[in-house]
Design brief:
Elements: H1 3-22, E1 57-65, H2 77-86, E2 88-96, H3 97-110, E3 116-122, H4 124-132, H5 140-146, H6 148-156, H7 158-164, E4 174-178, H8 183-186, E5 192-194, H9 195-201, H10 209-221, H11 241-247, E6 263-266, E7 271-274, H12 279-293, H13 306-313, E8 320-321, H14 326-330, E9 335-337, E10 357-365, H15 372-380, H16 385-393, E11 400-402, E12 408-410, H17 412-415, H18 423-427, E13 440-442, H19 454-463, H20 479-505, H21 513-522, H22 525-542
Parallel strand pairs: 1-2, 1-3, 4-13
Antiparallel strand pairs: 3-10, 4-10, 5-8, 5-9, 6-7, 11-12
Helix pairs in contact: 1-3, 6-7, 12-20, 20-22
């Protein structure tokens, strides 16, 4: 057993022990008496319109909660209003994201799982495992009969069906799916630079990796904020992974998008390529090492926390940033998204683009649920236009209004709250999507997060021509492949992360590159890639 796997196993054991000792009343078996209708199955359900069911019922739902979400979804206005519309009462068991994996696995292991899991970050491997065990129910036929909104999306976007269909041919979940045309959502966030500092330096926005280096160097050497102190920070982010993922397209890497950040297609051989072992990735690391060695990156970039980064940002000291929005997070204006940078070999590819099928396991129904037909109709509403508006905007007249030209906007009480509450704190009384891996169809029309800000949309349009042409959704694997990949990944992924950091900070010389690649081979990289190819071939067969 490797040290990594032993440490991981020990950590899991300790964590689960703590969870068993600290589980609150939400984790205890629920009393089902009195919360069930006398009718079940199709007889209970109205096929169209509202209410969804002919008699009131209750659904018990396990839900992951982000730090920005309301602490108790049972009190959020959207669910109160939706219950009035549907006759379906929901009882949410809230679990913070930092406890989600252990708590979710625990309730599945002890058999006291709920009617459904929502925003619980279930992976394709989870879906296949518990689907084949019969814990998560097969949805293929239920979608055909009770989910007209989602069925239309499956027909319009075949990649959803390909990504959701497991190796056994079944669909076990409803996903979170981004409109493929919502480019500012797919790119997440651009590489921001401070426009007025470019002006003071007499520079145009960098268009090559060399020009970006020269800009960072000029920021370090110039008192651009005029306070007489050398406190300007050329580049800031939490860790270096975001920077690597933004820059690797300048070396022709990552040509299938962020859904597969470690593997893409080698254009020369037309074979799958493990990016962190490629010679061009070595060149990328050498470039970032130069930035680090010359003090052009955040001094504590490997240890800085988001809170410290945002606090620094409010002082306006960053020349460039990788965050969703300098305005919403740091109250900083005047940043613009960079164009796609051209690399030393002439590559100019924007690879930091997410797969539209962003969360495959956003909502599942379990075999404990006596109302699967009603539950499918309940969740399907949010994949349609009216349900999407309600999910993201809340309650008309309370959290949003509709303008004469059909645009929906948040009310002044949300945007300019007088009690000192932030935008997200006020909005969380009405909706639950803030910070979560929610089920639904995400469009620019109703999603009003930082990705919908004018500067984000402008930045996205600037990079659109260079976005990778083929974006892979998650691949699916057999149970045996999943188990082997899990074992191999437990060694390979942490080793890559450790060595990447050490190459960048200089604690390991690049003369050790061949030894690093050799160690990956010893860890089973060839088998890892064979399994990956199996998933890729299954994906390609599904597209025919």
């Amino acid at each position: 057993m490797t040290k990594q796997r032993y440490a991981a196993g020990l950590a899991i054991t300790v964590l689960l022990s703590g969870v068993l000792l600290s589980c609150d009343n939400d984790s205890k078996p629920r009393d089902k008496a009195g919360d069930r209708s006398g009718m079940t199955g199709a007889d209970l359900v109205n096929l169209t319109g509202m209410p969804i069911v002919k008699e009131p019922i209750t659904l018990h739902i396990f839900a992951g909660k982000s730090p920005t979400s309301h602490p108790d979804w049972n009190q959020v206005r959207i669910w109160q209003e939706y219950e009035r519309m549907t006759q379906i009462h929901t009882q949410f068991q809230m679990v913070p994201f930092d406890q989600l994996s252990s708590r979710r696995n625990l309730v599945l292991a002890d058999g006291d799982y709920p009617d459904a899991f929502m925003t619980s970050r279930l992976s394709s491997a989870d879906l296949l495992r518990y689907g084949q065990q019969g814990v998560f129910i097969r949805l293929n036929d239920l979608i055909d009969e009770y989910a007209p909104n989602f069925k239309r999306l499956l027909e319009k976007y075949p990649e959803i069906r390909k990504g959701l269909t497991m190796a056994d041919g079944n669909i076990y979940s409803f996903p979170s799916f981004y409109d493929p045309d919502f480019m500012s959502m797919l790119i997440g966030y651009p590489l921001w630079v401070k426009a007025d500092w470019l002006d003071k330096l007499g520079m145009e926005p960098p268009e090559t990796t060399e020009e970006f280096y020269q800009y960072l160097k000029a920021v370090k050497e110039t008192d651009l904020n005029g306070n007489g102190k050398a406190d300007e920070i050329p580049y800031g982010s939490v860790g270096t992974s975001a920077l690597l993922n933004h820059l690797k397209g300048a070396w022709g890497l990552g040509n299938r998008g962020m859904g597969h950040s470690r593997v893409d297609m080698d254009p020369e051989t037309n074979e799958l390529r493990f990016i962190p072992a490629d010679p061009r990735y070595k060149e990328l690391l050498q470039y970032v090492h130069k930035l680090y060695a010359e003090g052009l990156l955040e001094k504590d970039i490997f240890t800085v926390k988001s809170s410290a980064l945002y606090a620094n940002g409010t002082r306006g000291v960053y020349g460039s940033l990788l965050v969703p929005s300098p305005f919403t997070l740091m109250n900083q204006t005047g940043y613009v998204g960079l164009p796609v940078l051209e690399g030393p070999h002439g590559d100019r590819l924007y690879s930091h683009v997410k797969t539209p099928l962003i969360h495959v396991g956003a909502f599942v129904i379990t075999d404990r649920n006596p109302y699967p037909e009603a539950t499918v109709r309940w969740i399907d509403y949010f994949f349609g236009d009216e349900g999407s508006k309600m999910f993201f905007m809340g309650i008309e007249g309370e959290s949003y209004v509709e303008t004469p030209d059909g645009e929906v906007v948040y009310t002044d009480s949300i945007l300019n709250n007088k009690s000192g509450r932030t935008f997200e704190q006020e909005l969380s009384k009405y909706v639950v999507w803030l910070g979560g891996s929610y089920p639904g169809f995400v469009t620019k029309k109703y999603f009003k997060g930082s990705e919908s800000l004018p500067e984000s949309i402008e930045a996205a349009e600037r990079v659109r021509p260079y976005v990778v042409k083929e974006i892979w959704p998650p691949f699916t694997y057999t149970q045996e492949e999943t188990e082997r990949m899990s074992i191999l990944s437990a060694d390979i992924h942490p080793y890559v992360d450790e060595m990447v950091a050490r190459f960048i900070n200089g604690s390991v010389s690049f003369s050790e590159w061949d030894s690093y690649v050799s160690t990956l081979k010893q860890m089973g990289l060839d088998e890892y890639m064979r399994i990956y190819r199996s998933g890729y071939e299954r994906y390609m067969q599904g597209s025919k």
